[in-house]
Each structure stands twice: as C-alpha cells, then as structure tokens.
Design brief:
The protein is an alpha/beta fold and 212 residues long. Helices cover 52% and strands 13% of the residues. Strand 5 (100-103), helix 5 (108-119) and strand 6 form a beta-alpha-beta unit.
C-alpha cells in the first residue's frame, strides 16, 4: 500500500523527531523544517501530499506559510498542529487554507484520523476547538471585524521586526535593501498608529504573527 507523503514543520527539534518517529510506520516523511520560510521553499520542491504545520514558527509564521503554500500548491493539504487553543486562530487558519486543526496534546489515533480525513478531501478540527468555534458563532454569527489588514509583505516585515531582527537582518531574510524594510516599517507604524517597537510587538502577538 502506498504511504501518504507527509512533511513536518515545527521550530522544536525534539518535537520534529517525535512526530517523525510517530508517523513513519504509516506515512512517508519526506522532509522536516524548523521555520516557515524553509517550509514554503522545501514543500514546493518535495511536493508532499500533506504538511503538519506549527502556528508559531520563526521567520514566517504558520498562517502566512499556509497562505503562501496554498497560493503555490492549491492541492496540498495542511494540518495545523499547535498548542494554541484559540478558536479565533483556528478559524483564521481554516480561512487561510488549512484543512485540519489539532492540538499537540491530541492522541496519536486522532492525528492519523485527521491525516486520513484531509487526504480524502474533508476537513478536520479537533472537537475541543470545534466547540469553541461553534460557540463563538452562536454568540455572534456576524462576520468578525478584523484588525486593519496588512499586505503580505508588511506582515513579513512586522513579524521579523517583532522577533528582534534589525533592519539589515530583516532585509537579508527578505532579499531586499534595509531602506525597503525601513520604508515598510514607517508605513506599518503609521497605518496602525503605533509609536514604539513595544507597540509593534504587542500588535504582532495579538494578530498571531509571533507567539507571546
């Protein structure tokens, strides 16, 4: 029987090794990466059927990695595997293109079930989070008023600066000039009415660009 081709993305080496050992009897683990940029680059080359994605990754967070991968590879199945129990984050991840959302505390049986479901073209959200999403909708079925939307590039710049990167370091990651990063930072701070780097970090945490 052909094993599904699966890729792993998590910034903790021990977690990557644990999930590789867990999955390998039933899946072909074709790659493992520790940041969102490496995920987008390597997945495009390896073309896995499914990817287990952590939400809190450096250089490019899980949400933006999902958006970029779905734009490049619409057929790929993405399962969020995270410690974050925020139902709003789960909702945003599914809107971004994820097919599944599980917690790292989920049982192995549930993980394998989720992989099977998404590969069949279905969606799977762990029951605890699904209840939270349903309860939030019952309380207020109107579409959520989301924070002012940044462009994809502005989101990337915001995350890198919130992680403590200098203008030059952020420019190196994005393959642009420090002046370009400075321009984006100026625009971001103005549009969001932020005055300090601490304000920028708080915005990044609140909007799931970086973890607290």
């Amino acid at each position: 029987m052909k094993l599904p081709r699966v890729m792993l993305a998590d910034d903790h080496t021990l977690i990557l090794e644990a999930f590789r050992n867990l999955l390998e009897p039933r899946c072909q683990v074709v790659g493992a990466v520790s940041d969102g940029r490496a995920l987008v680059e390597l997945a495009s080359a390896l073309k896995p059927e499914a990817v287990l994605v952590d939400m809190a990754m450096p250089l490019l967070n899980g949400l933006d990695a999902i958006r970029q991968l779905k734009a490049k590879m619409p057929e790929i199945k993405l399962i969020c595997l995270t410690m974050n129990e925020d139902s709003d984050l789960a909702d945003e991840a599914m809107r971004a293109g994820a097919s599944g959302y599980l917690l790292k505390t989920s049982a192995a049986k549930e993980l394998f079930h989720a992989i099977q479901e998404v590969l069949r073209g279905r969606t799977y959200v762990t029951p605890k989070i699904a209840r939270g999403m349903q309860e939030a909708f019952i309380r207020d079925p109107r579409p959520k008023q989301r924070a002012k939307t940044l462009t994809p590039r502005q989101r990337e710049v915001t995350q890198l600066l919130a992680e403590g990167k200098s203008l030059k370091e952020a420019a190196d990651v994005l393959h642009v000039t420090p002046r370009t990063v400075a321009f984006h930072k100026y625009q971001i701070m103005g549009e969001l009415r932020l005055k300090t780097t601490a304000d920028l970090i708080r915005y990044a945490v609140k909007n799931h660009l970086v973890s607290a």
